């Protein structure tokens, strides 16, 4: 078990650093003795988990890992992975859950699941478009762009002025900074009256499409405690997909925050 655990830690380090790794890298990052590092890396190379560059002597993922990764990518793309998380999100939270895509400056609904919570179900039809800056889903996706890209895309005129929608460009950029920090965005009574939302996002490393995943609920249900709990749950759904598709944001997301998401 310790050998498998060590191999797992090495592969996680490769994923986090996103480059070839050396014995020194592993020793300094994981705190292992160099003798143990050399033995582990040599064994992983022998069995195809790693391969060693003949010139630099650094290690990279081996043929076995690349073959398995190719099979995974061929059979499970970002969209299908998000759909699986969407089903679970609706079941876990009881609220209607959605996948959106960022299309220019708009957020567009592409998938929907009805929740199981009693009372009002917030339903938005597939194909619905809305200004991205005026919803949790849209802001979660915009947060995956740089501020300069957002300004160029959205412009300075924010016409939706309902609920908690940002009124100014400065306000919008502050909201996006918070979304990047915590991993989710929240909205309340913006595009639709009496409707709140909590959303996160992933970027497909191959297509560069930005997808949002989140939930919609009656505004009356939203509280600070519920936002934190469901925010972590939505963030966890996006994180699970992001790490599987090579989304750099989620690969670099602080481990302690990810652990908190999984415990919630």
Topology:
Blueprint: H1 2-17, H2 23-30, H3 34-46, E1 50-52, E2 59-61, H4 63-75, H5 78-93, E3 96-103, E4 106-113, E5 129-131, H6 136-142, H7 147-154, H8 169-182, E6 185-188, E7 195-203, E8 210-218, H9 224-244, H10 248-251, H11 255-263
Antiparallel strand pairs: 1-2, 3-4, 3-8, 4-5, 6-7, 7-8
Structure description:
This protein is an alpha+beta fold. The protein has 11 helices and 8 strands. The protein has helices spanning 2-17, 23-30, 34-46, 63-75, 78-93, 136-142, 147-154, 169-182, 224-244, 248-251, 255-263, and strands at 50-52, 59-61, 96-103, 106-113, 129-131, 185-188, 195-203, 210-218. The strands form 2 sheets. It has a 6-stranded antiparallel sheet with strand order 5-4-3-8-7-6, sandwiched between helices. The longest helix is centred in the last third of the chain and has 21 residues, at 224-244.
Concise overview:
This protein is of the alpha+beta class and 264 residues long.
Low-confidence stretches: 258-264
The residue fraction in helices comes out at 40-55%
What's the order of the H and E elements? Answer: HHHEEHHEEEHHHEEEHHH
Intertermini distance = 28 Å
- The average pLDDT score comes to 87
Strand order of the largest sheet: 5-4-3-8-7-6
Largest sheet: 6 strands, antiparallel
Radius of gyration: 21 Å
- Secondary-structure class: alpha+beta
- β-sheet strand percentage: 15-25%
- In DSSP terms (H or I, runs of 4 or more residues), the helix count works out at 11
User: What is the 3D shape?
Assistant: elongated
In total, the number of strands is 8
């Amino acid at each position: 078990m310790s050998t498998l655990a060590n191999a797992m830690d090495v592969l996680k380090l490769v994923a986090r650093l996103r480059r070839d790794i050396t014995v020194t890298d592993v020793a300094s990052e994981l705190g292992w003795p160099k003798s143990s590092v050399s033995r582990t890396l040599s064994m992983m190379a022998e069995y195809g988990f790693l391969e060693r560059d003949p010139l630099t002597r650094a290690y990279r993922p081996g043929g076995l890992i690349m073959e398995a990764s190719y099979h995974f990518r061929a059979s499970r793309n970002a969209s299908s992975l998000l759909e699986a998380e969407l089903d679970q999100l609706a079941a876990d939270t009881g609220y209607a859950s959605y996948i959106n895509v960022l299309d220019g400056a708009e957020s567009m609904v592409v998938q929907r699941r009805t929740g199981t919570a009693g009372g009002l179900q917030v339903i938005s039809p597939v194909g619905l478009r809305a200004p991205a800056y005026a919803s949790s889903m849209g802001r979660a996706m915009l947060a995956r762009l740089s501020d300069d890209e957002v300004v160029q895309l959205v412009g300075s005129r924010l016409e939706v002025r309902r609920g908690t929608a940002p009124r100014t460009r400065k306000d919008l950029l502050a909201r996006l900074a918070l979304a990047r920090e915590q991993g989710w965005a929240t909205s309340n009574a913006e595009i639709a009256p009496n409707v709140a939302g909590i959303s996160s996002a992933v970027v497909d490393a191959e297509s560069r499409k930005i997808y949002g995943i989140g939930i919609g609920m009656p505004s009356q249900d939203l509280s600070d405690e519920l936002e934190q709990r469901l925010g972590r749950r939505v963030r966890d759904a996006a994180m699970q997909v992001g790490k599987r598709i090579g989304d750099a944001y989620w690969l670099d997301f602080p481990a302690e925050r990810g652990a908190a998401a999984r415990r919630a």
